[in-house]
Amino acid sequence: MRESVIRKHWRQGKPVINGWLSMPGAFSAEIMAHVGTDTLTIDLQHGLVDYQTATTMLQAISTTDVQPIVRVPWNDPAAIMKSLDAGAYGIICPMINSRAEAERFVGACRYTPQGYRSVGPIRAAIYAGRDYIQHANQTVVTFAMIETREAMRNLDDILQTPGLDAIYIGPGDLGLSLGHGAVMDPTHPDTLAAIATIARTAERHGIRKGIHTNSPAFAHRMVSEQKFDFVTLLTDATILATHGARLVGELGALRANTLPPKPLHGGDPSP
Question: Cis ω on the peptide bond leading into residue 113 (within 30° of 0)?
Fold first, then answer.
C-alpha cells in the first residue's frame, strides 16, 4: 500500500503543511497540488463540492505526491466510507463532542475488528494499492474536530478513543462557542488559552494535533509555541480573493489618475 505522507512526517518529527480545497473542480485541485503542501483537504462540509466532483479532484491530486484528505459534512458513516473508498488518506470529522461520537467516527474509518467499515475500496485500491484492505487500518488517519465548549468538557474521554490518531481545531467554531466570535487566527486570550489546553491535553494522551490557520504567521506560531503536528494554511478561495484584491489594489493609482474621456468615433463624448 502507498505510504502515508502524514505518518511519515510525524515519524520524522516534521509538521504536515496542509492545503484546503473549497472550490469545486479538478483543475483548481491540480493547481493547488503543485504549490508545495504535503497534503490537500477537500472540504465537503463548507466547501461547494459534491461527491462526484470530489472524486475527480482526488484523481487530479493523485497526479502528484501530495496526499488527499477529506473533511466530511458530518459524522455520517456513509459519507466517511464513500470518501475513503474514493481514495482519501485521512478523514477530518467536524463537531466531535463526546467519546461516543468519536467512537462512531473512528469505527467508520476502520475495517473489522477495529471498526465497522464496509469492504469496497473501489478507487482506493487503485490509488493506494491492491493490498489496501490489509493495511488501510494502519494507514488512514483519523482527525476529530474539537471546536465547542462541550468537546472541551469531554476532551479527556474523546482523546482516549481507540484508533483516534489526531484532533483538528476549528478556531472559528471554537471562538464562537466560547462567545468571542468566529475568528480564524484568534487573538482573544480565552480562545488562545482553549487552544493551548487542547494542545496540552492531546500531547498528554499521545494524540497528534492539527489546526486551521489563516496566515503563515499564525501557522508558524502554532507549530513553534504549541507544537502542532498539522497546520492548514493555503485555502484556494482565500488565495484567489486576497491575491486578486492585492493585485487590483496595486493598480489603484490608475483610477486616481484617469485621463479625460476620448470622443467616440470623433463625436462628442457628453450625453
Answer: yes
10 Å Cβ neighbour count for 194?
23
Marked catalytic residue, from 9, 34, 46, 188: 46
227: CB partners within 8 A, 6+ apart: 199, 203, 209
48 touches 25 (CB < 8 A) = no
pLDDT (tens digit per residue) in 34-60: 999 999 999 999 999 999 999 999 999
Pair 68, 88: CB distance under 8 Å? yes
The predicted model scores a pTM of: 0.93
Q: Among this protein's residues, is 46 annotated catalytic?
A: yes
Does residue 196 belong to any structural domain of this protein?
yes
CATH number of residue 137's parent domain: 3.20.20.60
Residue range of the domain that includes 36: 5-239
